[in-house]
Each structure stands twice: as C-alpha cells, then as structure tokens.
Amino acid sequence: MPGNDIFILGIESSCDDTSAAVIRNNEQLSNIIASQDVHKQYGGVVPELASRSHQQNIIPVIQSALDKANIKKNQIHAVSFTRGPGLLGSLLVGTSFAKAMSFGLSIPLIEVDHLEAHVLAHFLQEPDSPSEVPSFPFLCLTVSGGHTQITLIRDHFDMEIIGRTIDDAAGEAFDKAAKILGLPYPGGPYIDRHASAGNPMAFRFPKPRISGLDFSFSGLKTSFLYFIRDLLKKNPAFIEQNLADLCASIQHNIVGILMDKLILAAEKTKIRTIAIAGGVSANSSLRKAVMDQQQDRGWKVFIPKFEYTTDNAAMIAITGYFKYLKNDYAGYTLAPYSRSFRP
Ligand code: KG4
Ligand code: ZN
C-alpha cells in the first residue's frame, strides 16, 4: 500500500565507515558506505582521523543515499542513528547530524544500538525479492573487529548475550595475525584470500580452555607471534614460503574456536535457528562451517549478504523501523555511549 509506506533514514558512524541508508518499510532502497582509507597507513583506526573524515563525509553520503533511493528529505518519516558502542568522536558526528535533521524536519529521532543492529540486519529485504528471515527464538554469533558474542534473540528487542569474548575480538585476532605476517590492515580479508590456496592442517595452534560460552583470543595471538618469531630465526623466508598455509591454519583455528562455542550454545539452548553477523561473518571458512551444520546438526542457517556483514546504515535503518512501529523515539538530550551498554 504505497500511501502507508514508512521511509526511514539510517546513519552509521561508530567506527571508520560513514554510512547512510534509506529503507521503505523493511526494504532497502539505498545503502551508501564511505570507507576511510586514511587508517591503512597506520595499521589500525586512528580515532581523531575517523571523526574528521566522518565530518567531511556525512552530508555527501546522506545526499547520495537520498538520491539513490529517489526520495526527498521531507518524505522521510524518522531518522535513526547509531548511538553506540563505538568511538565517541565518530559517534558524535552521526548523533549530532541525526538530531539536527530530526529537529529541522520535525520527525522522530530513533537511537540504535550497533550490536542489536548487526543482528537485525537479517530482517532486511531487497525490493521485489522477498527472502526468508529467522524465526524466533534464534541464536546469532556476532563477530567483528570490536566484538565477539553469542546472543539469544527471543524477539526484535528481547536479546540476551549468552557468551562473549573475555579479551580480543575474533576480527582483532585475524587483524593481529595478519599484521604479524606483514599483511595490510584490516587483515581479515587478506587472510581469507591467501587461505584459499593453503592447507588448514599445515600448522597447529592451541585452543583456549575457557569454560561455558565465552571466548578468548589473546593466547592465540601470543602463540602465533612466538611461533613465527622462532621460525623466522631459522629461515628468514619462512613467511613468504608458507603464507597460504599459515593463513589457512590460523583461520582454521579461529573458526574452530568460534564454531565450538556456537555448537555448544545450540546444544545448551536447544535452538537450531542460527545466524551470523558482523565483519568476520564475511569469512568464507566461517560461512562454510556454519552452512555445513545444516547437514550435520539440522540447523536452519542465516548468513548475511556481504553488503550487510561490515558496518552499514541499512542495519541501523531496519532497527529504526522496528522501533518506529513501537513509537520508541529518543529525546534530544541523549549522548552517545562508547562501551557495550546503554548508560
Ligand atoms: O563489523 P566490522 O566491519 O567493524 C566492526 O564493528 O569492528 O568488522 C571489521 C572486522 C575486521 O577485523 C576485519 O578484518 C574483519 O571484520 N573481516 C574479516 C573478513 N572481512 C572482514 N575477517 C575475516 N575474514 C574476512 N573475509
Ligand atoms: Zn560493526
């Protein structure tokens, strides 16, 4: 029913991607992402540079999202934005812009939690091609550069974190291993690419002994560092000669750690509808390992489109849409939060 369509603008600026999206109900009309290459030369995200780039990018990115969706500002029903967690200076850019736009257009302002949005990205639809969405309850393994957690989702906004990392995130483990191997930042996609030509059993690394559903990745980084350092002493060309096998082996180990806990979570909760989300959910080995469980354990698996794995505003817009339906609006005095909890 075109007259009843709801248009939501989503804004994401929590880390180093400036993104804006427009959705019509649950359908994505545009999802523009400006990635910041400036951080590559520093081997990690530099917060001050990220804030500055967001400030430069935000209006052009929002304009592109409106243009691509072919709608005007005054057709938007609400503006939703990432309130946290993330880098405070980066979040302030999106938050201030969203407040100003909501105030200027006299439309509701909707605050969104970045991690809830990664999960709810599974409810996004493409225009004219409906796809199946997870049914409740389901489990979601959210794996990114800053977070690694298993969430039990009972409803759109009834989420319980049942396992999380006690130190590094899975994406950090990929990025740190890549750095040790001399690969560019962020290293996850490079490891994935080189691993496709390697033997995942070539080298073995220890798995952490953490009870329950929590994860740990810091020990792996240390053992990988010492392993490489010792072998480089014997053979300075060790990395070049074994790059594919090293990437395949470290990837195998990280994916194994993730899968062990995800399988345990499915067994404990007796839930077999399983989703993955976040930047690391783009990893080909993780995608395959989860898909394999459809056969092995009868899971119903939901894997996001590549566009929705890394940070994007479409996931902020869909979360905003569900909140809009509940009239769950934000006030103008709120401030962003940098850690994984609302203040
Ligand atoms: O969700 P995201 O874009 O940003 C955060 O919220 O952190 O995730 C970025 C992380 C980086 O650590 C990056 O190396 C990792 O996702 N990543 C991958 C792959 N693509 C992105 N890790 C492994 N394999 C990939 N194909
Ligand atoms: Zn993210």
Summed up, what is this model?
By secondary structure, the protein is an alpha/beta fold. It is built from nine helices and ten strands. It is globular and about 65 Å long.
Report on this model:
With 343 residues, this protein is α/β, with parallel strands linked by helices. The chain has two domains: 7-131 and 308-325, ATPase, nucleotide binding domain (Nucleotidyltransferase, domain 5, 2-Layer Sandwich); 138-305, ATPase, nucleotide binding domain (Nucleotidyltransferase, domain 5). The chain has helices at residues 47-69, 88-105, 114-120, 170-180, 188-195, 218-234, 238-269, 284-297, 314-325; strands spanning 7-12, 17-24, 27-35, 78-84, 109-113, 138-143, 148-155, 158-164, 273-277, 300-302. A five-stranded mixed β-sheet has the order 3-2-1-4-5, with helices on both faces. Strands 8-7-6-9-10 form a five-stranded mixed β-sheet, with helices on both faces. Helix 4 runs parallel beside helix 6 (218-234) and helix 7 (238-269) packs parallel to helix 8 (284-297). Bound molecules: 5'-O-[(R)-(carboxyoxy)(hydroxy)phosphoryl]adenosine and zinc ion (ZN).
Number of strands: 10
Question: CATH superfamily of the largest domain, please?
Answer: ATPase, nucleotide binding domain
**Percent of residues in β-strands:** 15-25%
Q: Determine Rg (CA atoms, Å).
A: 21 Å
Distance between the termini: 39 Å
Structural class: alpha/beta
Give the spatial strand order of the biggest sheet: 3-2-1-4-5
What value does the average pLDDT take? Answer: 94
CATH topology of the largest domain: Nucleotidyltransferase, domain 5
CATH class wording of the largest domain: Alpha Beta
Order of helices and strands, N to C? EEEHEHEHEEEHHHHEHEH
Instruction: State the CATH architecture of the largest domain.
Output: 2-Layer Sandwich
The low-confidence runs, each spanning 5 or more residues with pLDDT under 50, are none
Bound molecules: 5'-O-[(R)-(carboxyoxy)(hydroxy)phosphoryl]adenosine, zinc ion
When the domains are counted, the total is 2
Helix content: 40-55%
Number of helices: 9
Q: Please state the overall shape, judged from the principal axes of the Cα atoms.
A: globular
- Biggest sheet record: 5 strands, mixed
